[in-house]
Design goal:
MucB/RseB_C, MucB_RseB, alpha+beta, Phosphorylase Kinase, domain 1, periplasm, eleven-stranded antiparallel β-sheet, 2 domains
């Protein structure tokens, strides 16, 4: 009889553990994270590290009647504050305040918070186990590209609230290019208290970014990393750079990272490839077929070089 009781207690313990186990797939967990950041009332104190620069910030978010409100405050040195209301982000600080159209505050927050993961192509979502961040239980998920032409993420997501607690943006050598790390995370409906003062705030002048959508340009990369699609293409003059010729550009994004290809007529001085990387941003430039090409964005330099070399034949044809 004692043996039966022992096995019965073991069975109860096993069932209890199984009942509390999180059975969400990595993709479902990532989707829950995005939803949590858009619909929960919360506050996070965190550090944002880009290269050697570390910034401490406080982010408050409220959601009511289908609308998002948020405040991002820099906690060190000069006061800088960002406010989200009605699909616009307003900037306040030691400068002339202004507003830009955006559904989210993207400055000093990882883009991974707002990605449409079900639509991403070229990535694996991998369960990397359990951990603890800011005294909160976390599930670790890796977002790994299927090629060497983009970066990878390691995420720590709160297993209960689904809020992001930490993200490491890594290159293919596992060097940390950017880190978001929460020190304190609070879920509280009292944060709805930020709605009234934000609603009462008189927002600064709205700056409409110029969109020079044009007809199809005569060139375009035939190769880009899997999943990247052209978002916009433009043709414009830059009088501030004293350039008479137009600069053509195409913006590409895969929903997680983006880059822009710029093409302009060579100004008489051809140059071999030049490249530079600051954190996650790569800059690659080279003279090709009578044109100067620059590629700037959140991709490894090897990807930028591959795109530029693919453009060579098309630009040489354009020159003829």
């Amino acid at each position: 009889m004692k043996n039966y009781r022992f096995y019965f207690y073991i069975l109860l313990l096993f069932c209890s553990l199984f009942a509390h186990a999180d059975t969400k797939t990595p993709l479902q967990f990532l989707q829950a994270m995005v939803s949590a950041h858009q619909t929960r009332n919360y506050e996070q104190l965190y550090l944002m590290q880009k290269g050697e620069n570390v910034t401490s910030l406080r982010y408050r978010h409220a959601y009511t009647d289908g609308r998002e409100y948020a405040q991002l405050l820099h906690l060190d040195e000069l006061r800088e504050e960002l406010i989200l209301r009605d699909g616009k982000v307003s900037y306040f600080g030691d400068f002339q305040p202004f507003s830009l159209r955006s559904p989210h505050i993207l400055d000093n927050l990882p883009m991974v918070m707002y990605s449409r993961f079900a639509e991403l192509k070229g990535y694996h979502f991998i369960d990397a186990g359990r951990s603890r961040i800011a005294d909160r239980p976390a599930r670790m998920i890796r977002i790994v590209p299927r090629d060497d032409f983009r970066y990878q993420y390691m995420l720590w997501i709160d297993t209960e609230t689904h809020l992001l607690l930490r993200s490491d943006l890594l290159d293919r050598d596992n060097t940390v290019l950017e880190q978001f790390r929460v020190l304190q995370s609070t879920l509280d409906d009292e944060l709805l208290g930020i709605v009234e003062p934000i609603e009462a705030l008189r927002l600064p002048t709205f700056i409409e970014t110029k969109r020079h959508q044009t007809q199809r340009l005569k060139w375009q990369p035939q190769w880009v990393p899997e999943g990247f699609k052209r978002v916009t293409q433009t043709k414009q003059r830059l009088p501030e750079m004293q350039m008479a010729d137009e600069v053509e550009s195409q913006l590409y994004s895969d929903g997680l990272f983006s880059f822009t290809v710029y093409v302009m007529k060579n100004q008489g001085v051809a140059f071999d490839e030049q490249f530079w990387r600051e954190g996650k941003t790569s800059i690659y430039s080279q003279s090709l077929g009578g044109y100067d090409v620059a590629i700037i964005g959140e991709i490894p330099l090897v990807a930028a070089r591959h795109i530029a070399q693919d453009l060579r034949a098309r630009l040489e044809t354009k020159t003829k």
